[in-house]
TrEMBL record:
InterPro entries named among the record's database cross-references: PhoX
Biased composition (Low complexity): 37-47
Region (Disordered): 25-71
Pfam families attached to this UniProt entry: PhoX
Protein name as it appears in the record: DUF839 domain-containing protein
Length: 770
């Protein structure tokens, strides 16, 4: 029991919509279901047990299958791992059950022959520990409604948030409130795997699967597997449809009380938000370089941009909206900072528009080339319109940008320019033990710039939250505030996860850092001022200085926010090892609220040296010239990642904290060199904090490091276990299919189910899952 079989996975996917190709031997016919519309899969009767093929034959109530991706194609999916019984532990939900098993391991009372944690392996299935049962909720290209031609579920899934029905009663926050067996889910769609089509070149991987789907549905007329058939007109059509595969999905889900499986309510008002101009958002907090247009060329209102894309992780706000991180936008409409730094973080001397000794003049114009950009000039958009933490008002029309409708004050979608442009992956909020904002304090948002050498940022609103504020009033608090960047003083530039001298920072002997205000009016001391013989140099002055640290001078705070990576480099902020997720834990087992950070890995040279100077630039006769990189500026040593905790100087009022302690709570391992390989895992990614303060995480890259599938892990930090060898060990709870990343873990309201995104199965290695 507990290991997912084909039958288990099919509990949530009794109908395979949009598949085409070889079918496994039929199972017994199920009861007759309702007749579906022509060309679309109708609800079938319950299928019989599947044969050894991919899926049993649907019951006779099903119509002919709709054109779709090829059978056997690996599909990104959302799964639910559901608690189905305590098995003698006395638990009532997933979290309690796993913690009970951990307690048995620590005390040596684990019943024989039970295996816990889940054994390491790499299979083409979803596996879970005994007592938990995985089912598939939805997969790429599944319809979100019964109507023919309606919206479909998007591509590679990532961040998940759950809103139980009735969560907002009595001013509650959505986290762990409302019904547990019915509610709304938000899911991010980050990208499409493989290689896109180009003139004369056919697509590969998921792009080819999607092109075949478009061919089968009539959206493309060319022979998609033949490169010669891909000409400009086909690319315009393809890119128009590609934009609809990313962004996010808002859908209602319900649980079957008999099986525990989850399914989409296709009669609900489910909505897709995507990268096309069907979705509109207003950039607030900065002024765009120009006015943009929609995908047909029609001018948009000032500050409004079409679509959101590259959505990786995010955050569920305490007031009921969703923050999505627009991460790797550089491949779509371009990155203005790419003119200053190479992909290996090398400084580019006298780069156009960034020449040292001159004001910064970044190019934010729409590029002529890039993903989703075709021969249609209207398909491209401004560089500074993307790369933000984007607040989606779920359930509202996709084209309702923030401030558009005066009859809906405070409603609509916006991009938080107040926090700047970065490779944003996530957002988290300072909350109390009931997951509500702290009364009579400013709103505090943390976010991580997920790049090698990225930093952690903190936004503190200018106004304060007071109990009883409406959603519109709370959202208005984010219109103005102060942006800070975390400087991990004393961190070793050669490792990124130890202090200078190789010392591991612990909760008893932590490292010390400070929050540096990042702006032209900042009077905080620049971290690299002393290295340049200017120990009293202030951050604002350093940013304006057109010759400081081999970079031109910033001319306004809009530039600072749009070029966060460059601004942090200029003043010498310590680089970090890909901060992929930040999560505030108001109920931490330590007894003090902590901010957890997942550092996935680094593996590249750093842009700066230990003193915060550009590692590949040297000043000679008043001119910055290229120099050779030092060995200490290469962080290739970190291939496994770690999880850190940040303890604010005043955990009860983090808005006012200007200093913090930091320490490592978990270090990734290579199984080949681990003393306990069953606990070895690498490259932590998304974090989730359970209702009682337990810390869980998914991995992205354990498959490559350890040849063991990525999965979801529980990090044991029970104070009573501190003296145990299992303290702060990662207990594997769930294992992914081949080469699939475990992303977006999220509990339902009562924690009886854990939702997980199975992202990019088979992207680089064999998979036919599901």
């Amino acid at each position: 029991m507990g290991r997912a079989t084909g039958a288990m996975l099919l509990l949530g996917t009794a109908t395979w919509v949009g598949c085409e190709g070889a079918q496994g031997p039929a199972g017994a016919d199920g009861a007759k279901g309702q007749d579906g519309q022509d060309g679309v899969q109708g609800p079938s009767g319950d299928p019989g047990a599947p044969g050894p093929g991919t899926q049993g034959q649907p019951g006779p109530g099903a119509t002919a299958r709709a054109p779709g991706v090829e059978s056997g194609t690996p599909l990104s999916s959302v799964i639910a791992v559901t608690f189905r019984g305590d098995l003698g532990t006395g638990a009532t939900n997933v979290a309690e059950y796993v913690k009970a098993r951990v307690e048995q391991v620590v005390t040596g009372r684990l019943p024989s022959p039970l295996v816990f944690p889940l054994s390491p392996a790499s299979t083409d299935t979803v596996r879970s520990v005994p007592g938990l049962y995985p089912t598939t909720v939805i997969k790429w290209m599944d319809p979100l409604a019964f109507a023919k031609g309606g919206a479909r579920f998007g591509a590679n899934v990532d961040y998940i948030a759950f809103f139980g029905d009735g969560w907002s009663q009595d001013g509650r926050a959505p986290q762990y409130h409302g019904q547990g067996a019915a509610g709304w889910m938000w899911i991010n769609h980050e990208y499409v795997s493989g290689t896109k089509p180009r003139v004369g070149t056919a697509p590969i991987g998921q792009h080819l699967d999607f092109a075949r789907f478009l061919r089968n549905t009539g959206a493309l007329a060319n022979t998609v597997a033949d490169g010669t058939s891909w000409q400009a007109d086909a690319l315009v059509s393809y890119n128009r449809e590609w934009k609809k595969q990313v962004g996010g999905t808002w859908m209602r889900v319900v649980q079957d009380p008999a099986t525990g499986g989850w399914a989409v309510d296709r009669n609900a008002a489910n909505v897709r938000y995507d990268a096309s101009s069907a979705t509109l958002a207003k950039v607030v907090g900065v002024t765009l370089s120009a006015e943009d247009h929609d995908d047909s060329g029609v001018a948009l209102a000032a500050g409004v941009v079409p679509g959101t894309h590259s959505n990786c992780s995010g955050g569920q706000t305490p007031w009921g909206t969703i923050i999505v991180g627009e991460e790797n936008v550089q491949g779509v409409y371009g990155d203005p900072e790419a003119a200053l730094w190479t992909g290996k973080n090398d400084w580019i001397p006298a780069a156009p528009g960034f020449a040292p000794g001159a004001p910064l003049a970044p190019d934010f114009s729409a590029p002529a080339e890039g993903d989703m950009v075709s021969g249609d000039r209207n398909s491209t958009h401004l560089k500074d319109g993307y790369g933000y933490l984007t607040e989606v008002d779920p359930g509202q029309p996709a084209d309702l940008w923030y401030g558009k409708d005066a009859t809906k004050p405070g409603a609509g979608h916006r991009k938080l320019g107040v926090m700047g442009r970065a490779h944003w992956e996530n957002a988290s909020f300072v909350v109390d033990a009931d997951w509500k904002l702290l009364a009579n304090q400013p709103v505090v948002i943390y976010g991580g710039d997920d790049r090698r050498g990225g930093r952690i940022f903190k936004f503190v609103s200018q106004g304060k939250y007071t109990s009883g504020m409406t959603q519109a009033q709370v959202r208005a608090l984010l219109d103005a505030g102060t942006l800070y960047v975390a400087h991990f003083a004393g961190l070793d530039n050669a490792t990124g996860d130890t202090l200078v001298g190789g010392v591991v920072p612990t909760d008893a002997a932590p490292g010390h850092g400070r929050w540096i205000q990042l702006g032209l009016d900042s009077v905080d001391l620049a971290p690299n001022g002393e290295a340049f013989g200017r120990p009293t140099l202030q951050v604002g002055a350093a940013l304006r200085d057109a010759n400081h640290n081999a970079m031109g001078g910033f001319v306004n705070d809009d530039q600072v926010r749009k070029l966060l990576w460059t601004a942090a480099n200029k003043v010498g902020v310590m680089e970090l090892n890909r901060p992929e997720d930040t999560e505030w834990n108001p109920k931490d087992p330590s007894g003090t609220p902590l901010l957890y950070v997942a550092f996935t890995e680094h593996g590249d040279p750093t842009a700066l040296d230990q003193q915060g100077r550009v590692a590949t630039a040297v000043l000679q006769d008043g001119v910055w010239v290229k120099k050779e990189r030092g060995a200490q500026d290469n962080r290739a040593v970190d291939k496994v990642g770690s999880i850190f905790a940040i303890r604010e100087a005043d955990p009860a009022a983090p808005a006012g904290s200007r200093t913090f302690d930091f320490f490592r709570v978990w270090k990734g391992e290579a199984a080949a060199t681990s003393a306990a390989p069953e606990f070895a895992a690498a490259k932590p990614d998304n974090l989730v904090i359970d209702r009682e303060g337990g810390v869980w995480f998914g991995t992205d890259g354990n498959f490559g490091v350890n040849k063991v599938a990525d999965g979801v892990f529980y990090l044991d930090q029970a104070p009573a276990h501190r003296a145990s060898p299992y303290f702060r060990k990662a207990f594997r709870v769930l294992s992914m299919p081949s080469d699939a990343e475990a992303t977006g873990p999220a509990f339902n309201s009562d924690m009886t189910s854990l939702f997980v995104s199975v992202q990019h199965p088979g992207e680089d290695s064999f998979s036919v899952w599901p």
